[in-house]
Amino acid sequence: MFKRTKVTDGTATGQGPDAENWDGKEVGFRKKSKVPGVMITQYIEKLPEGKSHPDFTRKPIALTIQEGKFAFFKAIVTGDPKPTVVWSRNNGDVSDPARYQSKYDPNSNEHTFEMPHVKPDQADTYKCFAKNEYGQAMVTVVLNVIEVGFKMTKAPQQQAEVANCNFKKVLKRRSKVVPKAEEPEKKEGEIDPKFWELLMSADKKDYERICAEFGVTDFRWMLKKLNEMKREREEEQAEFVKNLSDLKPIHINADGTASFELEFDLLDPSSSIYLYKDGEMIPYTKELGDKMKHCLRKVGRKYIFSMRDLMPEDAGFYQLDVEDVNMFSTDFKMVDFLVKIQEVKAMEREDAVFECVISAPLSKLMWFGKNMPLEQGDKYDIEVSEDKLIHRLVVKDCMVVDKGIYAACAGIKSCNAWLVVEADKGAPKGKKTARKTTRAGGSGTDLQKVAQEQQQILDKEREERKEKIKAAREAAAEAAAAEEPEKTADSGAGKDKGAAVKVERIDKTSVAATTTVAGDSGSGHSAGKASGGAKQDGSHADAGGGHSAGKASGGARKDGSIADAGGGHSAGKASGGAKQDGSHADAGGGHSAGKASGGAKQDGSPADAGGGHSAGKASGGAKQDGSHADAGGGHSAGKASGGAKQDGSHADAGGGHSAGKASGGAKQDGSHADAGGGHSAGKASGGAKQDGSHADAGGGHSAGKASGGAKQDGSHADAGGGHSAGKASGGAKQDGSHADAGGGHSAGKASGGAKQDGSHADAGGGHSAEEASGGSRQDGSLADAGGHSAGKASGGAKQDGSLADAGGGHSAEEASGGARQDEPLADAGGEPGITSGLSDIHAIRGQPAELTVKMNTDCDGAWFKDGEPLKSGGGISITKDANIHKLTIHSCRDTDSGLLRFVSGDLSTEGRITVGDVPEFDEDDLHKFSKPVIVRVGQNAAFKMPFQPQESLTVSWFKDGTELKDGGGVKIVREPNHSRLLLRDCLRSDSGEIKIQLKNPFGAVEATSQLIVLDRPGPPEGPVETVETTSSVIEIKWNPPKDDGGSAVTNYIIERQERGHSLWTKLGDVSAEKTSFRDRNVTHGKKYSYRIYAENPQGLSDSLETADSIMAGIMILSGPPGKPKVVSTSKTCINLTWTPPEDDKGVPIIGYQVEKRKKDTNQWLALNAINEPIEDVNYAVKDVTEGAEYEFRVSAINESGAGDASPPSAMACAKNPNMRPCFKDPEDFLVVRAGNSVRVKISYEAEPPPHITWLKDDEPIAPWINVINTEGMSQLVIPSSKRSDSAIYTIKAKNSVGEAFFDVEVRVTDEPKCPGPVELEQTVYGKVAVSWVPSPDQELDDRLYYVVSQHDSNTRMWKTVADRLFANTYTAHNILPGIEYHFRVYAKNDMGLSDPSQSPTWGANSNRVPISSNGVSSMEISFERPPSILVPLKVHTPPKGYQLYMTCAVRGCPTPNVSWYLNNTCINSDKNYYITNSCGVCSMYILRVRENDGGEYRVVAVNSLGKAECSTKLTVRD
Length: 1518
Fold this sequence. Notes:
The protein is mainly beta. The chain has 8 helices and 117 strands. Strand 116 and strand 117 form a beta hairpin. The chain is extended and about 165 Å long.
């Protein structure tokens, strides 16, 4: 048995209700509410009947509101007995009535908790408790308050809050971006934090645009830092959300709102979401969508932020955060229109163009046509210029339905203009005209010039940002150079002896597989020159890094050993001996001012040369064994040189403070050679290495040159590394290795080496005041350029997977790595090297080919093809000119294809030669293709060109030099042996040269053709010139059309229109050679318009029309008419009349023009146009203002125009003349149903306005009767009429001129009550007197009368026999014996008929005298029988909407009662069916058959003796 769990309400102090009213420790049972989030505690296990615990039917909604606003929560509570509601908050009390008010509305049952002028400290979690004797319900709600002007980043205030242990305020919401009002003064050149926020939310395709906007040019550095920031941000986001995707930046919607979207899943549904604009939190809503500006909606996984009522101040930087982590950032910009779209007038079937220029680049505008968004397609072309400033909309093939308003929207800015499409009047009726090739519209200004000027402004702003960034970096470099302490190189030894470097030997096979090796550049303060030796293996070479003012050189190595050059304070020369074994040779390292040289060793024994403060020469002996030879090591002023070793011994050359030269010996084994290591003023150079060994060159404070050697393997070479003011260069790499150039505070130039693979090259790393440049790459890798060098740092070139670092110190000279493109050495060592090697080439079959290799020294070499040696002969010549080696193939053949290799000693270079042919066309196909293709406008043009199938063949099509792309109206098909070009719906502008190009690695071939698109010619060129005009002849002239439509113009057609007429008449045509026409059929003084068409075999052109009408002869104007007279005036009209002019100059007058002038003005306004003359000599002027005064004048119009004006008329005032009141078409009788309102409207005319009085039966009207007087009308209104309101109402209108009366009879009545009982009496044979009791309404309604209807058994039809009877009797005639009669009497008035009063039956047996049988019995005959069906129903299939008759015949006595059924439902009372039964013939009529009329119909006849029925099917056809 389960026990019910009892719980205790554990509300903490300060959270629950007051202790006086609430126990807080009630024992109860948890109940579930239908409203989520409501906690219910029931005090007893079983509730009494009809009672209930409290519950919320509407709970309060969380609110985010701005400080100072009115905040409130609403709740609706249920429960019996009625619960008591109390509000509280988690942190604080709500007892202050000035800040918290609880209210209850008994009508709506709403409990309201109000907080007027809400403060930030009121932000908290609030609780609402509802309690009665059976339980309590509790719900929580959160209030967030946004401070006015509250800023998200207040570091000083935070520190103070933390110091005071007030952590609650410290944890307030913050944005990553500082608001504009609190932005610290930005240092010149500092990158805006918005830059990184935008990049992390943007697509990769937008990176370039964002970098250009913020003036960032170092893309390698940007990408590197962005990847680091993205990793950090993704880790932060993973704590709150998952599956973040589909980030869509903010954009303007078609409904005028702006929105951005993103999708993610919250790990904790209770996590808070915050919105910021420019770093400030903005309030938003989820429920009150149309009452707040900002809204955040959730649709599935998608979160949509939207803004409405957009204003310019809405532009800014928007961010969406979940808790403390930013999820999305987007920038809302405002773009303005420099040139707006203009109104376009286009002819039908012509293209219309709208174009505009905006102030900032935008990839796409939103175009609207008649309030509908437009997209690229068959109807519309949307074009954008390369600089994205000029935008165009082309409405193709305009029709009349396309006219309307078109708009361009950029953000909240928009501009619109009309498109007016004029119908082509010259088009034949009923036929579609051909599409025109012309375009209408445009802005009318030089858009390109405006766009160029705006682009210059934008470029100037971008350059200014770049200069600021550069200046900031230079300033920082100078400051850092003054403060940063000196640093020693990783491979150098500073002022001590060079430290031995422990390097793991790497086999050549393993080195080849290694592509990335870590390496560091030196960091010594050398003012000299440090050069790292060349390496061809996986070894590590460091060059430079000491305090030497001379030269430190490390020996060359060809094995896996390590060679270090330089590192001491020597002012001379320290040279390490050459080693060919695995031994170790160190050269230099002491304070010698002379020369210290270690003897050559061929064994393993040691040889030491010098080591003290000698001013002479110390040389280490030669060793051939595994011994040890040391050369130098003391403070010698001579030369210290390490002997050559061929074994695994160790040779050290120098190590003191020598003023000479320290050089590391060359090694060919895995030994270690160090050259220099002190403060030498000479030169420190790292020896060349061809194995996996390690060579370090320099490491002290040298003032010379530090150069990193070139590497061709996976090794690591560091060039420089000290504080050199010279030049440090990182080597070029062609593999996956890593090359770093610079890293110190050099005042020169830091350049990263070029890479052709996926490796990483860093050029510089400090604050260079000259130039920091990242090396060029041909792959997707990242190159960073920048260091603290004021000089130039360059790393040596690498072609393998090794890593080369060049420069990085404060050197005052130059650190440069030698260039290497192959295996041999290419630095200052003087050994042979290839400066220009072989590459892959393509040679044409039968043509000569030449391959050249250039060495840095004069040396021999050999050529190989596919591993076989080559010699001169057999079509091949091998020549050598000094250091240039050439291989010439006189006539290339297929057998010449292969891999060619040039070898000189240990150096080699190779390249592949491929022999082939240039593509070619067949002569017949070329001849066929060259023939022009001729099509008509609207047709498709097709081109086809066969060719031989080839590999690596590229086919391109061009039109007038512009390459065609597949898409739109262009279709390009590429097959292995041919290519086809299809141009759909050709226009005249598509005419031009069509070219096909075949291209492969050996060359290209082209074939050309012509496309001719035939069309109607363009209109003749205007304007139309008038050559001659006389009273009998008009001669005009024009120019040929610019475009003849592809075929010659055959003739011109001329049409004429007389002014004032709408008909155009064809005058004739002239040949194409003649561009003039003489019209001899003209009338003197009349004006004519002409239009000219050009015609070719394709049809007629558009017309060229004369701008103005041309008059035949000279202009003859009529004289002035007589002075106008004012006939009458009113407030709306002034009537004028005048006399014709006395002198019409012999030209007939066709009409008049009337002008008016308002008093106190000087302007005469024409009341009619000249082409709309007034034919009569009188005119009613209706365009007047009441009370204003006018004068008028008239001009006579003839064929030449309007003549002189007449003298002005007298001033006339637009007002009505005084007149006696009169009523206009009033109604004298009105009938109204009792209870309805009575409205009597009387219109009148009077001047001045009269005084209106209403009377009822000559008595004043009652006060509840309303009278409404307006100008020219008076209205009497009785709101709810009664029969007592029936009367004669009189309206009286009186003014100073007179008065008028009019009577209106108003009758208030209702439908009459029926008359009393009807009696029948026969006074004379054949006549019956019908009498009845009068209707009760007869006394109340004197217009009531009676109607009598009669029915007999023969016709069985009711007919009206008497109407409009005002008496209570009626005599019926022709009453025949043997027939039954019935009478009905109706009362009727103006509202209609009453119910009838039925008379008794007057029949055949009513006067019969019973006959006695006198006891004689007779047989009784009975006619009674049950019902039977004589004629059954038939099947009907009528169409939908047609009428239908359905009949059957029924017999039975007594007469059976007939019922109709549809699908077992009786339809006798259904008004959609008209059912009759006449003498047993039962009929049903349907006026219009519907779908639901189909089904089974059944007729049932029933009487007292039985029942009969029949049925049929009705099917409704569509």
